[in-house]
Design goal:
5-stranded parallel sheet; two-stranded antiparallel ribbon; 48% helix
């Protein structure tokens, strides 16, 4: 059976993480998240982790070459031999080309790139509706997962908060940054005949069915 090597792209709030977890479990391949890898390397105190921490502690972006090196190390582990799902990586054209060069050395290639999309107003509503408990860290949503009593955590009774990143104005800025950052990347994968766009406005099951169709031989 051919290894399934996938890339999931999409703006904040589009639901690609949910689909990534679901598909990785279905196909029994690792769900590889750049954020998780970075945190693991930092926690382990590896040479790459120490370098990444210098940028993360200053609130800056980890350079492309360092991110690619950390991802390449993860993809070289035995559990990735049968395939993997890269969630939110690469984020720039530079990262994509560096990844392709790394895979070419191992005589591997990406099977498919799925780009999850939804209108801005849908994404803003999804993200700005999120609420969190500052004490027990339970998560809610005013529309899809409301607490029993508005504004109050079901678990511990604390007042729920809206994170600064989820304020409508901030969400709009995050979406604008994402578009500028990935527009070139999306065009690149489309030109390579690897891209499938997934409409993420439906239910989790409907979007999951669209994902399976996109991956069908």
């Amino acid at each position: 059976m051919m290894a399934l090597r996938l890339i999931f792209l999409g703006p904040p709030g589009v639901g690609k993480g949910t689909q990534a977890v679901r598909l990785a479990a279905l196909h029994r391949i690792p769900h590889v998240s750049t954020g998780d890898i970075l945190r693991t390397e930092v926690a382990a105190g590896s040479d790459l982790g120490k370098k990444a921490r210098q940028f993360m502690d200053q609130g800056g972006l980890v350079p492309d070459d360092l991110v690619v090196a950390i991802v390449a190390r993860r993809l070289a582990l035995p559990d990735c031999e049968a395939g993997y799902l890269l969630d939110g990586f690469p984020r720039t054209l530079g990262q994509a080309k560096a990844l392709e060069a790394t895979l070419a050395q191992r005589k591997e290639n990406i099977s498919r790139v799925l780009y999850f999309s939804a209108p801005d107003d849908v994404l803003i509503r999804r993200l700005s509706g999120r609420r969190a408990c500052p004490k027990c860290h339970a998560n809610y949503h005013v529309e899809t997962l409301p607490p029993k009593q508005a504004g109050t955590c079901d678990r511990c009774g604390s007042a729920l908060i809206q994170r600064k990143d989820d304020l409508p104005g901030t969400v709009r800025q995050r979406l604008d940054v994402y578009k500028k950052q990935t527009e070139e990347l999306v065009r690149h994968y489309a030109a390579e005949k690897l891209l499938s766009e997934i409409d993420s406005t439906g239910t989790v099951d409907l979007v999951g069915a669209a994902v399976e169709r996109a991956l069908a031989p």
